[in-house]
């Protein structure tokens, strides 16, 4: 294991770290590391736990390549089953919602997923519902504007695990119910605009035609 917590490191993560084939635990939290999170970390086939909390990192995390967990905590994770990416300055370049990068490749034996205190935005990906082993999830304090999935993991979440998002709605405890517009998001709005705008244009044209007709008749009568 290699722990280097709170050492004021202010550099890029060195590429040479990929040569530490036997590394099981790597702790780099509470430093000033910058640049991109190396995809080469995923080549550490024995790596079980990775600590990256409180840095200035960007890029895609090779989460799916780790055997057990990625944690943002400076403490030992319990039983290697805790995944956290919270409280770090990992955005805006990181796309944790991308189904082709992170969430689609998470292990199904990941019990707890904590993505709180980041800048996640958009919709919650459907791939999260496929994580059969996921017991709890924390997405508090992000920028999510969408309904929460109707699956036990989300429906059993507490408001503490969902709060701090301005646009979340759904059947989970403490959330407002979704409106017809929120269920379909912007696509529904676009459809509404496509339907309404031609109707408004047609109505305006009809009113203008009637007004011109009356004006013409009045002018003809006065003449």
Please give the structural blueprint.
Blueprint: E1 2-3, E2 25-27, E3 34-36, E4 49-51, E5 56-58, E6 82-84, E7 112-114, E8 121-122, E9 136-138, E10 143-144, H1 152-155, H2 180-184, H3 186-222
Number of helices: 3
Strand order of the largest sheet: 1-2-4
Give the averaged pLDDT, no decimals: 61
Cα-to-Cα separation, first versus last residue: 100 Å
Label the CATH architecture of the largest domain. Alpha-Beta Horseshoe
What is the CATH T-level topology of the largest domain?
Leucine-rich repeat, LRR (right-handed beta-alpha superhelix)
Strand pairing plus helix content: what structural class? alpha/beta
CATH class label of the largest domain: Alpha Beta
The CATH superfamily of the largest domain is identified as Ribonuclease Inhibitor
Radius of gyration over C-alpha positions, nearest whole angstrom: 26 Å
Biggest β-sheet, characterized? Answer: 3 strands, parallel
* Total number of beta strands: 10
Q: Poorly predicted ranges (pLDDT <50, ≥5 residues)?
A: 59-110, 185-197
Q: What is the count of structural domains?
A: 2
SSE ordering: EEEEEEEEEEHHH
